[in-house]
Design a protein that fits this description.
394 residues, single chain, Ribosomal Protein S5, domain 2, 43% helix, 12 helices, Alpha-Beta Plaits, four-stranded antiparallel beta sheet, alpha+beta, binds alpha-D-galactopyranose
């Protein structure tokens, strides 16, 4: 699949720009085992990069112009690096404009490039296709022009591009997972210090299955930024109550409970979710290390319920998908994944039951919503990287 993607993008580059690309880069999407909506709340997350990619074919063009071709959309866009770069109306181009702007702002020099890109990461499915684009482009410029950016700096540029050129006030999880992914490893990331460690993603007789609700979300128009504002407001009030508290990590559930009246129902439930979710991630890491997958699965269901009832970022379709497997003895855990309001559920399923589950849930989902469910059996893969051109037919 990867090889085919690379070949198609390379062939398209030749057509567009009349020569083979000089470089190929791959930037993966991500899953998250647990730790949702806590990356911007000083929590921990447990994501991993997957074998779905944005592929970039790219060459230096000796000018100051960046020429982009989005193969999947059949759209082109160009911008001049000598001019001030600002976000425009074309959403996908803003990822590139944002990255170029931020690298320029750091005083780092690079030249015009020709780019063709294409993706096997479904868009709006909660698999972070946008982070893959941002980080892939930043990574490519960094390699091609020896800019000296660390992987962490690349991830941070991706996040800032999202904030300033796309308008989504996201956390760091998606970009970090895309850039730092490792084969068969999940990343336990401390979103406060950006310290991280890898843990084996070996679920023995279980495997991860994504069920795509096909409900598309864009975080820009969803309640994502609202949630950020609500928890910010909540934390400020909690800090007044408990001056020793610096971040959500320092808070106990009891302290949030005791502040219910001051917070008001909505903000109280948002804060309660955050404090509980931060703890769940730590418990999940212990469960994973002990190969206690039953406990891990229970924590995933608890996360879903919290996201649905207290954080209110789920939707009817995602709730249906989590409930459809809740009492299935072959499914240890399931939950909505990513920003929410649509996208996928992530399920921990007994390997030999995967196909049966897909069949059963697809049928039930079709009956209920008249939507054709899509299932992804993902593999945990390495992060953003340069692809050897030898396979690309270059
Ligand atoms: C989106 C954001 C991430 C994170 C998740 C929810 O994917 O981009 O930063 O907040 O939602 O966990």
């Amino acid at each position: 699949m990867k090889k085919k993607l690379v070949q198609q993008v390379s062939a398209c580059f030749k057509e567009q720009f009349g020569a083979a690309p000089g470089h190929i880069f791959l930037s993966p999407g991500r899953i998250n085992i647990i730790g949702e909506h806590v990356d911007y709340n000083d929590g921990f997350v447990l994501p991993a990069a997957i074998n779905k990619y944005v592929c970039f074919a790219i060459s230096d063009n000796g000018t100051n112009t960046v020429n982009l071709f989005a193969k999947d959309l059949n759209e082109s866009y160009s911008f001049d690096l000598t001019q001030p770069l600002k976000p425009g109306d074309l959403m996908w181009a803003n990822f590139f404009l944002g990255v170029a702007h931020l690298i320029k702002e750091k005083g780092l020099a690079f030249g015009g490039v020709n780019v063709v890109f294409s993706s096997t990461i479904p868009m709006g499915a909660g698999l972070s296709s946008s982070a893959a684009v941002e980080c892939g482009f930043a990574f490519a410029l960094n390699k091609m022009y020896n800019l000296g950016l660390s992987r962490e700096a690349v991830a941070l540029i991706g996040q800032k591009a999202e904030h300033t050129f796309v308008g989504v006030n996201c956390g760091i999880m998606d970009q970090f997972a895309s850039v730092f992914g490792k084969k068969r490893k999940v990343i336990k990331l401390d979103c406060n210090s950006l310290e991280y460690e890898y843990h084996n993603a070996d679920f023995k007789e279980y495997s991860l299955l994504l069920l795509d609700s096909k409900v598309k979300h864009t975080l820009l128009t969803s309640g994502y930024n609202d949630r950020r504002n609500e928890v910010e407001q909540g934390l400020a009030l909690l800090k007044e109550q408990y001056p020793e508290v610096k971040t959500f990590r320092d808070l106990t559930e009891a302290q949030v409970e005791a502040s219910k009246n001051i917070l008001g129902d909505v903000v109280y439930r948002r804060c309660l979710f955050v404090v509980r979710e931060i703890k769940r991630v730590l418990d999940a890491v212990t469960a994973l290390e002990n190969e206690d997958f039953a406990t891990l699965g229970k924590l995933m269901f608890a996360t879903h319920d919290g996201l649905s009832k207290n954080y209110e970022v789920s939707c009817e379709e995602l709730d249906f998908l989590a409930d459809a497997v809740r009492n299935d003895e072959n499914v240890l855990g399931a939950r909505m994944m990513g920003g929410g309001f649509g996208g996928c559920t992530i399920n921990l399923v007994k390997k030999d039951a995967v196909n049966g589950i897909i069949e059963r849930v697809s049928q039930e989902y079709k009956e209920k919503f008249n939507i054709k469910l899509e299932a992804y059996k993902v593999k945990i893969s390495k992060g953003t990287s340069q692809y050897t051109t030898e396979y690309a037919g270059i």
